[in-house]
Write a structure and sequence with these properties.
Number of domains: 2
Low-confidence stretches: none
CATH architecture of the largest domain: Roll
Structural class: alpha+beta
CATH class of the largest domain: Alpha Beta
Helix content: 25-40%
Number of helices: 5
Largest sheet: 5 strands, mixed
Strand content: 15-25%
Distance between the termini: 50 Å
Order of helices and strands: EEHEEEHHHH
């Protein structure tokens, strides 16, 4: 067994895991954070996407021991404690960017990372940036619209007072 110490959704956590335990299983089985979905177990679909030190990572291909010392954000840690959705979640809701919802947690996490990394996104950039996250229901246009809306919200929030992004 290996001791892994993580900060998950702002809370320090320590767990004993077998060295071969995938991060997705540590999150779901050891910590009870089942919002991180297991889709393909081969990094093809992105349903398991979480943020590791602020960057999107497919947790089905990352060992928990590789994340030792990292700050992990899962979908459970995105909304405010009072339940207020963050801007990406709100945009997904407003743009109807989900149907069955299975891909949504991973898509939201990947979108958050994408917006942080590339604040000047356009449609092509969103499509390229999310190409590792698959949705079998929506046809993607509403997802793209949601990410562009969230990116615009982030740009407005980060703009200096009196300027336009």
């Amino acid at each position: 067994m290996s001791l892994v110490t993580l900060t998950v959704n702002g809370e320090g956590r320590s767990l004993d895991v077998e060295p071969r335990t995938l991060l997705v299983h540590a999150l779901r089985d050891h910590l009870g954070l089942t919002g991180t979905n297991i889709g393909c177990d081969s990094s093809s679909c992105g349903a398991c996407t979480v943020l590791v030190d602020g960057l999107s990572a497919k947790s089905c291909t990352m060992l928990a021991v590789q994340a030792d010392g990292a700050e992990i954000t899962t979908i459970e840690g995105v909304a405010e404690p009072d339940g207020t959705l963050n801007s990406v979640q709100q945009a997904f809701h407003e743009c109807h960017a989900l149907q069955c919802g299975y891909c949504t947690p991973g898509m939201v996490m990947a979108a958050m990372s994408l917006i942080d990394e590339y604040p000047d996104l356009d449609e092509a950039g969103v499509r390229s940036g999310l190409e590792g996250n698959l949705c079998r229901c929506t046809g993607y246009q509403n997802i793209v619209d949601a990410v562009l809306q969230a990116a615009a919200t982030a740009a407005t929030a980060n703009a200096p007072a009196g300027s336009t992004p």
